[in-house]
Design the sequence.
């Protein structure tokens, strides 16, 4: 910085103001300083800056199984929101979701002097692990359920499932079958709750739940079972990948969609509108989840306010396409 100041003919403090985008710098001075920075190839020493300011301008993210569309999209939304706020992101992706694995990830990020941490905790075991946190580091959980004293940000899974189930009932279907996600996932649990609530409110009995593991293969297996059952006219599948498997099984068994059975999914993955037929589904706003997570975390970091648990919910959106029709 001293070299930049000398070349630009300004003070060290002026260089600092330019680097921090301070408004009280004349335009011509800012141009002269930036030109000196370019000519010298100056780069900030973030470690030194963190020692002075006690802020690393880096946020940690702990995630699980980022090969799945939901967690991967959530992490992307968080990273984009963090960068827009002027923060770098350090990501730890875990296969093990036990308390020891989560604690190791949090300790690793704490050693990097991150200013705060977002934990993507869609599984119940991951949410339980949030009870054991490093002292003094602000943490926000995405999903997370009742994650101790940690604030959470999540899409309203119950409302999303209710919307799609009510849509199918509104088309005149007597009831709606459900292919669920894994039992340890909070999202799967919420979608079952919303599905059951919509059926109960309509005075309908909830059929047997067919369990899947989020994969197209598990949806395919469930679809083969459903194709052989009498009276099935509508199926709500807990994610679009499993819905793809259901559609494949129905096609092989000669079951017309939506002629004989209407099918709806959840997530609105980019491929959903290109399924055959295009899939009715529930859209999750992962960008909004990322923005709200970073907003909550930065408020904790910047104000050091009393940490009171808050739960922020992002509304889902029903997207109606050609895979559902009147009974």
Sequence:
């Amino acid at each position: 910085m001293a070299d930049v100041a000398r070349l630009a003919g300004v003070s060290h403090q002026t260089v600092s103001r330019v680097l921090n985008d301070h408004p009280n710098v004349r335009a011509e001075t800012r141009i002269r300083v930036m030109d000196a920075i370019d000519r010298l190839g100056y780069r900030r020493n973030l470690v030194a800056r963190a020692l002075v300011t006690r802020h690393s301008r880096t946020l940690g993210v702990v995630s699980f199984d980022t090969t799945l569309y939901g967690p991967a999209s959530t992490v992307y939304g968080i990273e984009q929101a963090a960068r827009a706020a002027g923060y770098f992101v350090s990501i730890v992706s875990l296969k093990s979701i036990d308390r020891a694995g989560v604690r190791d990830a949090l300790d690793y990020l704490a050693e990097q002097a991150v200013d705060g941490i977002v934990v993507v905790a869609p599984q119940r075991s991951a949410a339980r692990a949030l009870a054991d946190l490093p002292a003094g580091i602000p943490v926000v959980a995405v999903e997370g359920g009742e994650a101790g004293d940690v604030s959470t940000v999540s899409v309203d899974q119950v409302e999303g499932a209710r919307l799609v189930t009510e849509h199918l009932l509104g088309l005149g279907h007597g009831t709606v079958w459900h292919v669920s996600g894994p039992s340890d996932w909070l999202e799967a649990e919420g979608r079952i709750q919303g599905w059951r609530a919509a059926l109960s409110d309509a005075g309908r009995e909830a059929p047997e739940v067919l369990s899947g593991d989020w994969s197209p293969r598990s949806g395919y297996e469930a679809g083969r079972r459903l194709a052989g059952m009498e009276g099935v006219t509508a199926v709500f599948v807990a994610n679009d990948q499993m819905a793809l498997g259901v559609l494949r099984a129905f096609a092989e068994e000669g079951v017309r969609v939506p002629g004989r059975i209407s099918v709806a999914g959840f997530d609105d993955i980019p491929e959903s509108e290109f399924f055959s037929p295009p899939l009715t589904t529930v859209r999750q706003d992962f960008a909004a989840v990322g923005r709200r997570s970073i907003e909550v975390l930065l408020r904790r970091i910047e104000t050091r306010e009393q940490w009171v648990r808050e739960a922020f919910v992002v509304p889902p959106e029903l997207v109606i396409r050609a895979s559902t029709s009147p009974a």
